[in-house]
Amino acid sequence: MPGDLPMPTTIFTADELAVIRRAYAHQVMATAATSNPRIEAAFATVPREIFLGAPPWQIANLGGGYRPLPSSDLVLANGSPSLHARLLAELDIQIGDRVAHIGAGTGYYSAILAELAGTSGHVYAVEMDPDLAAHAQAALAERANVSVINADGSQWPQQEVDAIYVNFAVARPAEPWIERLRPGGRLVLPLGLPRQDRPPKGGRHASHGAALRIERGEGGFAARWIGTAYFVCANGGLTIDDNEIEALTAAFRRGGIEFVKSLLWKTEPRIGRCWHIGGQWALCYDDV
Fold first, then answer.
1. pTM of the predicted protein model
2. Which CATH superfamily is domain 80-284 in?
3. Of 112, 170, 199, 202, which one's alpha carbon is 20 to 30 angstroms from that of 96?
């Protein structure tokens, strides 16, 4: 029967794979409309397929949902994670940086971060789902500069870091993401609210979404809108009450997040100068 036939696999030599990975990385950067040789080199170096699990791999349909790939061809599996390339460019990882990756999944972007931080840096890959964390642990086992932590991302990092990369939508930043960011440290996170119609399987996607870059300076936290970004919403310790959901929803509907310039943390906000005021934090139009 046709369904019993083994999945066809395209075999490449090591040299051919290197060319394929370089072309993939170049396409990712072009789609992201950003130019960063170090990020392009990281995408070209990390073998994405070891983070995908066993085939058959899934591919997104244009009309929504997923379908299995017809083969375990590495060219088809690469995809185009251009949004992450853009966000990583904003994170500006330097050699030697200590980085917290919150919502690490199977560890692919943890590996990209590890390439950017170099052997003198370190990546704390935090993933709450035990199965995903186990997959990441196996896939990242040979990277001495990565620690995989099976924990709620709202509780990490537990030490000061230079950069924090959040890979799920949140309605507010977690306390450690702000308070354990070193001076000059950068935080990139997707701000968003869950849709009311939870899908039968998988996570709950955001109904509004915006990626933000936060940088800790001497006088406070500079904030900048990066662009629209929709991620699966957080579980665990980052739930908010109905009043804050209503206030953040109203802020998204009003618009204007692109004019935000600062994040206030545990500071009294100026009424009329903020895009959104949450519990002990706010996004404001004034400079730091």
1. 0.88
2. Vaccinia Virus protein VP39 (3.40.50.150)
3. 170
